[in-house]
Amino acid sequence: MKLGPVTQFLMNDRAGKYLLSILLAVAVLVPLMNLTVPEGSALHVSTYTLTLLGKYLCYALLALAVDLIWGYCGILSLGHGAFFALGGYAMGMYLMRQIGERGVYGNPLLPDFMVFLNWQELPWYWSGFNNFFFAMVMVALVPGFLAFVFGWLAFRSRVTGVYLSIITQALTYALMLAFFRNDMGFGGNNGLTDFKDLLGFNLQSDSTRAVLFFSSAVALMLGYILCRSIVLSKLGRILISVRDAEARTRFLGYRVDKFKLFVFVVSSVLAGIAGALYVPQVGIINPGEFSPINSIEIIIWVAVGGRGTLYGAIVGAVLVNYAKTYFTAAFPELWLFFLGALFVISTLYLPRGVVGLAADLLEKRRSLGAGGGASVQAEPETPVESPQAAVADDSKSSKESEIELSTN
């Protein structure tokens, strides 16, 4: 019986099962330790730590989206920060519409920055964002539509390699410049902030932050299952062939541009969802999220964790961002040098990332253990002829006897 991609994933992906088990445990235990354990206890998780870990989970989902296209299709995108930011802005627009009269200027319809800039009416593209479900559709639709248009033009023109990377980064930079403008209607340099509540729940309460953390963990688990299912399907095998030999795959009759476009759109939607979960937890979204350096950092997360493994991208995102949190506090002026050194070291000495290094060490340990067990056995005092040698000798003697008979 032929197994489906999800069934194959559940049966064969040991590392994935470990990852999902850890994520499920973290999704349940961390909020409980924040809400139920007293603050004086050593097991208490502070609200700051809860929010920080939730941000790491959003970054992990973003890294997973990049690894899907880079690790398995060979598309090195330096513009996924744009899709992340667009999803964040869609969520931010909904949160701004929920403020209403509680803003600084008390305008029930216009956000504070629009009142400050003397806007007289709400722009048409803000319409509908007072509805949560409409906003969630826009979280996926806006990044997906932009990725579809960009990918259709680029892949149809067979733009690949470093040229595609440069174009994606140019797209991100153009969006950053556009969102910095006050007349765009997205808050200009300050962006969107001062959020009050989500679905009627106070964003500053610990219970709301715990739910957001749990939602981020669940979204990461579902995203991993989706990406793994794609990779294990026939589509995934075609994507790998596109990555390794795009011209040969095209000559075999496959529409390479359509496969690349599909996975590019899926990846952008995952990035947009990550951005939507990120904004209510950090409390702000501004054009700085479009910065090209952010998209380059995502590539570093995937490279450090292990490109083409999916779970390695998640590990890399958590490790690098934890290191960033530590080094920006301990060595604020040297953090970018640490980041660059980390990328160079990963490229030169860790081509398979941290998870690849761990797999190599584990394999080496197993081989040494097997070799040590074999060395304990005592060697026989007299050599024993192997069955293959005996068969060879028998066949040789039979051939010699046949020659003798023929000569006689």
> Which structural class do you get from the secondary structure elements?
mainly alpha
* Helical stretch tally: 16
Number of domains: 1
The geometry reads as globular
Helix content: over 70%
Spell the H/E element sequence: HHHHHHHEEEHHHHEHHHHH
Number of strands: 4
Relevant terms:
two-stranded antiparallel ribbon, 408 residues, disordered C terminus, 16 helices, mainly alpha, 71% helix
Q: What's a quick, concise take on this entry?
A:
Helices cover 71% and strands 2% of the residues. It has 408 residues and is an all-alpha fold. It has one domain.
Description:
The protein contains 16 helices and four strands. By secondary structure, it is mostly helical. The chain has one domain. The strands form two sheets. The chain has a two-stranded antiparallel sheet with strand order 1-4. The chain has a two-stranded antiparallel ribbon with strand order 2-3. β2 and β3 form a beta hairpin. The radius of gyration is 28 Å and the shape is globular. The N and C termini lie far apart (62 Å).
